[in-house]
Amino acid sequence: MTEASTPFVDETPCLTPLELSINGQLKVEPEDFVVEEVPAYLPSGVGEHLFLWIQKRDISAEFLTGHIARSLGVRRDDIGVAGLKDRRAVTRQWISVPATAEERIEAINTPAIQVLEAKRHGNKLKTGHLRGNRFELIVRGEPGQLAIAQQIAAAIAEQGVPNYFGDQRFGHDGETLTLGMSLLKGETDPRSIPSPKRKFLLRLALSAAQSSLFNTVLARRLQAGTLHSVQPGDVMQVCASGGLFVVEDVPSEQPRFDARETVITGPIFGPKMKSPLGDVLQLEQEILTATGLTREVFRTHSKLTPGTRRPLLLWPENLTVADHPHGLRLTFTLPSGCYATVVLREFLKENRD
Protein backbone atom coordinates (compact mmCIF):
# COMPACT_ATOMS: atom_id res chain seq x y z
CA MET A 1 0.00 0.00 0.00
CA THR A 2 1.47 3.27 -1.04
CA GLU A 3 1.88 5.59 1.93
CA ALA A 4 0.95 9.18 1.05
CA SER A 5 2.43 12.22 2.72
CA THR A 6 -0.59 14.39 3.67
CA PRO A 7 -2.16 13.28 6.97
CA PHE A 8 -5.84 13.84 7.75
CA VAL A 9 -4.93 15.00 11.27
CA ASP A 10 -7.99 17.22 11.80
CA GLU A 11 -10.49 14.83 10.24
CA THR A 12 -9.18 11.68 11.88
CA PRO A 13 -8.01 12.51 15.41
CA CYS A 14 -5.32 10.49 17.14
CA LEU A 15 -6.04 8.34 20.17
CA THR A 16 -2.82 9.04 22.09
CA PRO A 17 -2.42 12.53 23.66
CA LEU A 18 -1.25 15.21 21.23
CA GLU A 19 1.50 16.30 23.65
CA LEU A 20 3.07 12.84 23.23
CA SER A 21 4.78 13.22 19.88
CA ILE A 22 8.14 12.91 18.18
CA ASN A 23 9.65 14.76 15.23
CA GLY A 24 11.12 13.09 12.21
CA GLN A 25 11.21 12.35 8.50
CA LEU A 26 9.90 9.23 6.81
CA LYS A 27 11.25 7.49 3.70
CA VAL A 28 14.33 9.64 3.24
CA GLU A 29 15.77 6.47 1.69
CA PRO A 30 13.78 3.45 0.48
CA GLU A 31 15.60 1.36 3.08
CA ASP A 32 13.91 3.46 5.79
CA PHE A 33 10.63 1.66 5.01
CA VAL A 34 10.93 -2.12 4.77
CA VAL A 35 7.76 -4.17 4.25
CA GLU A 36 7.62 -7.96 4.19
CA GLU A 37 4.40 -9.79 3.38
CA VAL A 38 3.14 -12.42 5.82
CA PRO A 39 1.50 -14.98 3.50
CA ALA A 40 -1.74 -16.80 4.25
CA TYR A 41 -0.07 -19.98 2.98
CA LEU A 42 3.14 -21.07 1.28
CA PRO A 43 3.33 -22.59 -2.21
CA SER A 44 3.05 -26.39 -2.21
CA GLY A 45 5.71 -27.11 -4.82
CA VAL A 46 3.34 -28.56 -7.44
CA GLY A 47 0.76 -27.04 -9.75
CA GLU A 48 0.15 -24.92 -12.84
CA HIS A 49 1.13 -21.62 -11.21
CA LEU A 50 4.54 -20.36 -10.17
CA PHE A 51 4.86 -18.32 -6.99
CA LEU A 52 7.73 -15.80 -7.00
CA TRP A 53 9.13 -14.28 -3.80
CA ILE A 54 10.12 -10.86 -5.12
CA GLN A 55 12.01 -7.95 -3.60
CA LYS A 56 11.65 -4.50 -5.10
CA ARG A 57 13.28 -1.18 -4.21
CA ASP A 58 11.64 2.19 -4.93
CA ILE A 59 9.29 0.62 -7.48
CA SER A 60 5.52 1.08 -7.63
CA ALA A 61 3.15 -1.89 -7.55
CA GLU A 62 1.77 -0.97 -10.98
CA PHE A 63 5.24 -0.73 -12.53
CA LEU A 64 6.21 -4.10 -11.01
CA THR A 65 3.20 -5.88 -12.50
CA GLY A 66 3.84 -4.34 -15.92
CA HIS A 67 7.53 -5.23 -15.78
CA ILE A 68 6.78 -8.86 -14.91
CA ALA A 69 4.21 -9.10 -17.73
CA ARG A 70 6.66 -7.70 -20.28
CA SER A 71 9.59 -9.77 -19.04
CA LEU A 72 7.69 -13.06 -19.13
CA GLY A 73 5.46 -12.34 -22.13
CA VAL A 74 2.25 -12.91 -20.14
CA ARG A 75 -0.91 -10.85 -19.68
CA ARG A 76 -1.31 -8.64 -16.63
CA ASP A 77 -4.47 -10.59 -15.82
CA ASP A 78 -2.38 -13.76 -15.53
CA ILE A 79 -0.38 -12.24 -12.67
CA GLY A 80 -1.63 -12.71 -9.12
CA VAL A 81 -0.82 -10.51 -6.13
CA ALA A 82 -2.16 -10.71 -2.59
CA GLY A 83 -1.71 -7.02 -1.82
CA LEU A 84 -0.15 -3.82 -3.16
CA LYS A 85 3.09 -2.66 -1.58
CA ASP A 86 4.58 0.81 -1.10
CA ARG A 87 6.67 2.43 -3.80
CA ARG A 88 9.15 4.42 -1.69
CA ALA A 89 10.28 1.33 0.21
CA VAL A 90 12.05 -2.01 0.08
CA THR A 91 9.32 -4.63 -0.10
CA ARG A 92 9.16 -8.42 -0.31
CA GLN A 93 6.06 -10.30 -1.42
CA TRP A 94 4.72 -13.36 -3.26
CA ILE A 95 3.51 -12.91 -6.83
CA SER A 96 2.08 -15.71 -8.99
CA VAL A 97 2.55 -16.21 -12.72
CA PRO A 98 1.70 -19.09 -15.08
CA ALA A 99 4.18 -21.94 -14.63
CA THR A 100 4.67 -21.98 -18.40
CA ALA A 101 6.87 -18.90 -17.91
CA GLU A 102 9.26 -20.70 -15.54
CA GLU A 103 12.19 -20.73 -17.97
CA ARG A 104 12.03 -16.94 -18.39
CA ILE A 105 12.07 -15.99 -14.70
CA GLU A 106 15.64 -14.62 -14.82
CA ALA A 107 14.44 -11.94 -17.23
CA ILE A 108 12.60 -10.26 -14.33
CA ASN A 109 15.78 -9.40 -12.42
CA THR A 110 17.04 -5.81 -12.48
CA PRO A 111 19.08 -3.76 -9.99
CA ALA A 112 15.78 -2.77 -8.33
CA ILE A 113 13.78 -6.00 -8.72
CA GLN A 114 14.98 -9.48 -7.74
CA VAL A 115 13.31 -12.89 -7.70
CA LEU A 116 14.52 -14.42 -4.44
CA GLU A 117 12.62 -17.72 -4.67
CA ALA A 118 10.32 -19.55 -7.11
CA LYS A 119 8.00 -22.42 -6.27
CA ARG A 120 4.97 -23.97 -7.92
CA HIS A 121 1.44 -24.00 -6.53
CA GLY A 122 -2.00 -25.21 -7.57
CA ASN A 123 -3.85 -21.89 -7.67
CA LYS A 124 -3.28 -18.31 -8.72
CA LEU A 125 -2.55 -15.87 -5.90
CA LYS A 126 -5.59 -13.66 -5.31
CA THR A 127 -6.15 -10.32 -3.64
CA GLY A 128 -6.39 -10.76 0.13
CA HIS A 129 -4.46 -14.03 0.26
CA LEU A 130 -2.15 -12.76 3.00
CA ARG A 131 -2.17 -12.60 6.79
CA GLY A 132 -0.59 -9.21 6.95
CA ASN A 133 2.68 -7.28 6.64
CA ARG A 134 5.77 -6.83 8.80
CA PHE A 135 7.21 -3.33 8.92
CA GLU A 136 10.68 -2.10 9.86
CA LEU A 137 10.73 1.69 9.72
CA ILE A 138 13.31 4.38 10.36
CA VAL A 139 12.11 7.79 11.57
CA ARG A 140 14.98 10.18 10.92
CA GLY A 141 15.03 12.87 13.54
CA GLU A 142 16.79 14.48 16.46
CA PRO A 143 18.27 12.26 19.20
CA GLY A 144 16.78 11.90 22.66
CA GLN A 145 13.23 10.95 21.61
CA LEU A 146 13.26 7.30 22.67
CA ALA A 147 11.58 7.86 26.04
CA ILE A 148 8.61 9.65 24.44
CA ALA A 149 8.36 7.00 21.74
CA GLN A 150 8.31 4.28 24.40
CA GLN A 151 5.45 6.07 26.20
CA ILE A 152 3.46 6.16 22.96
CA ALA A 153 4.22 2.49 22.28
CA ALA A 154 3.03 1.56 25.78
CA ALA A 155 -0.21 3.50 25.25
CA ILE A 156 -0.75 1.75 21.91
CA ALA A 157 -0.16 -1.65 23.50
CA GLU A 158 -2.91 -0.88 26.01
CA GLN A 159 -5.44 1.08 23.90
CA GLY A 160 -4.66 0.09 20.32
CA VAL A 161 -4.84 2.60 17.47
CA PRO A 162 -7.85 3.78 15.45
CA ASN A 163 -8.08 1.46 12.44
CA TYR A 164 -8.47 4.28 9.92
CA PHE A 165 -8.00 3.76 6.23
CA GLY A 166 -4.80 5.59 5.30
CA ASP A 167 -5.12 8.88 3.44
CA GLN A 168 -3.46 7.25 0.41
CA ARG A 169 -6.72 5.37 -0.05
CA PHE A 170 -8.38 8.57 -1.29
CA GLY A 171 -5.96 9.49 -4.07
CA HIS A 172 -3.93 12.61 -4.78
CA ASP A 173 -5.80 15.61 -3.32
CA GLY A 174 -8.75 13.29 -2.68
CA GLU A 175 -9.43 12.76 -6.41
CA THR A 176 -10.30 9.08 -6.02
CA LEU A 177 -12.72 9.84 -3.17
CA THR A 178 -14.35 12.64 -5.18
CA LEU A 179 -14.94 10.25 -8.07
CA GLY A 180 -16.37 7.61 -5.75
CA MET A 181 -18.86 9.99 -4.17
CA SER A 182 -19.86 11.31 -7.59
CA LEU A 183 -20.50 7.76 -8.82
CA LEU A 184 -22.63 6.93 -5.80
CA LYS A 185 -24.67 10.12 -6.18
CA GLY A 186 -25.27 9.38 -9.86
CA GLU A 187 -23.41 12.53 -10.94
CA THR A 188 -20.84 10.55 -12.94
CA ASP A 189 -21.71 7.84 -15.43
CA PRO A 190 -19.35 4.84 -15.11
CA ARG A 191 -19.26 4.71 -18.91
CA SER A 192 -17.50 8.08 -18.93
CA ILE A 193 -14.42 6.39 -17.45
CA PRO A 194 -12.05 5.16 -20.21
CA SER A 195 -12.64 1.43 -20.72
CA PRO A 196 -9.06 0.15 -20.29
CA LYS A 197 -9.07 1.22 -16.61
CA ARG A 198 -12.81 1.42 -15.97
CA LYS A 199 -13.19 -1.67 -13.78
CA PHE A 200 -10.05 -0.86 -11.77
CA LEU A 201 -10.99 2.80 -11.23
CA LEU A 202 -14.60 1.98 -10.37
CA ARG A 203 -13.52 -0.45 -7.67
CA LEU A 204 -10.89 1.97 -6.35
CA ALA A 205 -13.19 5.01 -6.28
CA LEU A 206 -16.20 3.27 -4.74
CA SER A 207 -13.97 1.69 -2.11
CA ALA A 208 -12.56 5.14 -1.30
CA ALA A 209 -16.07 6.41 -0.66
CA GLN A 210 -16.84 3.49 1.65
CA SER A 211 -13.52 4.02 3.44
CA SER A 212 -14.18 7.72 4.02
CA LEU A 213 -17.56 6.97 5.59
CA PHE A 214 -15.93 4.39 7.86
CA ASN A 215 -13.25 6.88 8.91
CA THR A 216 -15.91 9.45 9.76
CA VAL A 217 -17.83 7.01 11.96
CA LEU A 218 -14.60 6.02 13.68
CA ALA A 219 -13.58 9.64 14.30
CA ARG A 220 -17.02 10.47 15.73
CA ARG A 221 -16.85 7.56 18.16
CA LEU A 222 -13.34 8.51 19.24
CA GLN A 223 -14.47 12.08 19.89
CA ALA A 224 -17.53 10.83 21.77
CA GLY A 225 -15.39 8.60 23.99
CA THR A 226 -17.15 5.38 22.93
CA LEU A 227 -14.28 3.74 21.04
CA HIS A 228 -13.61 1.37 23.96
CA SER A 229 -17.17 1.27 25.28
CA VAL A 230 -19.49 -1.39 23.93
CA GLN A 231 -22.88 0.13 23.08
CA PRO A 232 -26.29 -1.55 22.82
CA GLY A 233 -26.75 -2.43 19.15
CA ASP A 234 -23.03 -2.47 18.33
CA VAL A 235 -21.93 -5.02 15.75
CA MET A 236 -19.05 -6.99 17.32
CA GLN A 237 -16.52 -9.21 15.61
CA VAL A 238 -15.17 -12.33 17.29
CA CYS A 239 -11.39 -12.02 16.96
CA ALA A 240 -10.72 -15.76 16.66
CA SER A 241 -13.33 -16.57 14.01
CA GLY A 242 -14.27 -13.25 12.42
CA GLY A 243 -17.95 -13.90 13.13
CA LEU A 244 -20.29 -10.94 13.64
CA PHE A 245 -23.12 -10.43 16.12
CA VAL A 246 -25.23 -7.56 17.45
CA VAL A 247 -24.88 -6.62 21.14
CA GLU A 248 -27.93 -7.15 23.30
CA ASP A 249 -26.34 -7.42 26.75
CA VAL A 250 -23.63 -4.79 27.29
CA PRO A 251 -22.57 -6.01 30.81
CA SER A 252 -21.69 -9.41 29.38
CA GLU A 253 -20.02 -8.09 26.21
CA GLN A 254 -17.83 -5.33 27.67
CA PRO A 255 -15.55 -7.81 29.50
CA ARG A 256 -15.13 -9.84 26.30
CA PHE A 257 -14.07 -6.68 24.47
CA ASP A 258 -11.71 -5.71 27.31
CA ALA A 259 -10.12 -9.18 27.06
CA ARG A 260 -9.75 -8.66 23.27
CA GLU A 261 -11.94 -11.63 22.52
CA THR A 262 -14.14 -9.32 20.45
CA VAL A 263 -13.79 -5.92 18.81
CA ILE A 264 -16.30 -3.18 17.97
CA THR A 265 -16.82 -2.70 14.22
CA GLY A 266 -17.73 0.16 11.94
CA PRO A 267 -19.55 0.23 8.60
CA ILE A 268 -18.30 -0.57 5.13
CA PHE A 269 -21.66 0.31 3.64
CA GLY A 270 -23.27 -2.06 1.15
CA PRO A 271 -26.27 -4.38 0.78
CA LYS A 272 -24.58 -7.30 2.56
CA MET A 273 -23.34 -5.27 5.56
CA LYS A 274 -24.65 -6.40 8.95
CA SER A 275 -26.54 -3.46 10.40
CA PRO A 276 -26.30 -2.23 14.00
CA LEU A 277 -29.29 -1.19 16.08
CA GLY A 278 -30.37 1.73 18.25
CA ASP A 279 -28.12 4.75 18.73
CA VAL A 280 -25.26 3.08 16.83
CA LEU A 281 -27.48 2.70 13.78
CA GLN A 282 -28.62 6.31 14.16
CA LEU A 283 -25.04 7.60 14.20
CA GLU A 284 -24.07 5.64 11.08
CA GLN A 285 -27.24 6.77 9.32
CA GLU A 286 -26.62 10.42 10.24
CA ILE A 287 -23.15 10.31 8.73
CA LEU A 288 -24.46 8.67 5.57
CA THR A 289 -27.25 11.24 5.25
CA ALA A 290 -24.85 14.15 5.82
CA THR A 291 -22.95 13.13 2.68
CA GLY A 292 -26.14 13.08 0.61
CA LEU A 293 -26.22 9.29 0.33
CA THR A 294 -28.66 6.53 1.22
CA ARG A 295 -28.05 2.83 1.81
CA GLU A 296 -29.85 2.06 -1.43
CA VAL A 297 -27.21 3.72 -3.64
CA PHE A 298 -24.76 0.94 -2.81
CA ARG A 299 -27.10 -1.57 -4.47
CA THR A 300 -26.46 0.17 -7.80
CA HIS A 301 -22.87 -1.07 -7.65
CA SER A 302 -23.54 -4.12 -5.47
CA LYS A 303 -20.85 -6.27 -7.09
CA LEU A 304 -18.21 -3.68 -6.20
CA THR A 305 -19.76 -2.49 -2.92
CA PRO A 306 -21.21 -5.59 -1.24
CA GLY A 307 -20.52 -4.18 2.22
CA THR A 308 -19.01 -5.61 5.39
CA ARG A 309 -17.86 -4.51 8.86
CA ARG A 310 -14.34 -3.45 9.86
CA PRO A 311 -12.81 -3.31 13.37
CA LEU A 312 -12.64 0.21 14.77
CA LEU A 313 -9.45 -0.55 16.70
CA LEU A 314 -6.18 -2.19 15.77
CA TRP A 315 -3.45 -3.60 18.03
CA PRO A 316 -0.11 -3.87 16.18
CA GLU A 317 1.71 -7.12 16.91
CA ASN A 318 5.26 -7.11 18.28
CA LEU A 319 5.53 -3.31 18.37
CA THR A 320 9.05 -2.21 19.30
CA VAL A 321 10.86 1.14 19.34
CA ALA A 322 14.62 1.55 19.62
CA ASP A 323 17.33 4.11 19.05
CA HIS A 324 18.89 4.18 15.59
CA PRO A 325 21.97 6.11 14.36
CA HIS A 326 19.64 8.37 12.34
CA GLY A 327 16.78 8.59 14.85
CA LEU A 328 14.37 5.84 15.84
CA ARG A 329 13.62 2.35 14.55
CA LEU A 330 10.06 1.01 14.76
CA THR A 331 8.99 -2.56 14.03
CA PHE A 332 5.51 -4.07 14.06
CA THR A 333 3.17 -6.41 12.18
CA LEU A 334 -0.29 -5.47 10.93
CA PRO A 335 -3.16 -7.57 9.60
CA SER A 336 -3.98 -7.33 5.91
CA GLY A 337 -5.91 -4.22 4.96
CA CYS A 338 -4.39 -2.12 7.77
CA TYR A 339 -2.07 0.83 7.30
CA ALA A 340 1.34 1.60 8.76
CA THR A 341 0.55 5.31 8.52
CA VAL A 342 -2.15 5.05 11.18
CA VAL A 343 0.45 3.64 13.59
CA LEU A 344 3.09 6.20 12.63
CA ARG A 345 0.70 9.15 13.05
CA GLU A 346 0.22 8.23 16.72
CA PHE A 347 3.97 8.82 17.15
CA LEU A 348 4.42 11.82 14.85
CA LYS A 349 1.01 13.52 15.12
CA GLU A 350 1.22 16.57 12.80
CA ASN A 351 5.04 16.59 12.94
CA ARG A 352 5.47 14.18 10.04
CA ASP A 353 7.63 15.59 7.25
UniProtKB/TrEMBL annotation:
It holds the Pfam family TruD. This is tRNA pseudouridine synthase D. It catalyses: uridine(13) in tRNA = pseudouridine(13) in tRNA. It comes from Planctomicrobium piriforme. GO terms for molecular function: RNA binding; tRNA pseudouridine(13) synthase activity. One of its GO terms (biological process) is tRNA pseudouridine synthesis. InterPro entries: PsdUridine_synth_cat_dom_sf, PsdUridine_synth_TruD, PsdUridine_synth_TruD_CS, PsdUridine_synth_TruD_insert, TruD_catalytic, TruD_insert_sf, TruD_pseudoU_synthase. Responsible for synthesis of pseudouridine from uracil-13 in transfer RNAs. Gene3D superfamilies: TruD, catalytic domain (3.30.2350.20), TruD, insertion domain (3.30.2340.10).
